[in-house]
Amino acid sequence: MARILILEDENTSRTALVKMVKNISAEITVDAAADLAKARLLLGSTVSFDLFLLDVNLNPNNASDSSGMEFAKEIRCLRQYEFTPLVMVT
Predict the structure, then answer these.
(1) Residue 4 gets which letter from DSSP?
(2) What is the pTM of this model?
């Protein structure tokens, strides 16, 4: 079973991504976050992710939600995710 974390601030895009990924296989579990705060909580949880789908540009009106690229850097700093695939979505 694979587990995927999706970070996408746009509700329609996030819903579509979750639906597309879940339609690939019943063996995939998806966790979705609308902002960096929720994504960081998921990343710090006890679950382990096999793939990250990250929005490049997050909410420009929220300074703490600047970029999926910044979150990608945070992910790479964690030894367990050093080689985990990251896909940037825009």
Answers:
(1) E
(2) 0.90
Structure tokens at 9: 């601030």
Query: With contact defined as beta carbons under 8 Å apart, do 48 and 83 qualify?
Result: no
Over 90: is that where the pLDDT of 90 sits? no
**Which phi and psi (to 5°) does residue 51 adopt?**
-160, 145
Instruction: For tokens 């990924």, name the residue.
Output: 21
Cα–Cα distance measured from residue 60 to residue 32, given in angstroms and rounded to the nearest whole number: 19
User: 10 Å Cβ neighbour count for 1?
Assistant: 8
Q: Which two tokens stand for residue 68?
A: 């999926």
Q: Report pLDDT digits (tens) over 16-68.
A: 999 999 999 999 999 999 999 999 999 999 999 999 999 988 766 665 556 78
Report the pLDDT value the prediction gives residue 27, as an integer from 0 to 100. 96
- Residues 3-25, buried b or exposed e (16+ Cβ, 10 A)? ebbbbbbeeeebeebbeebeeee
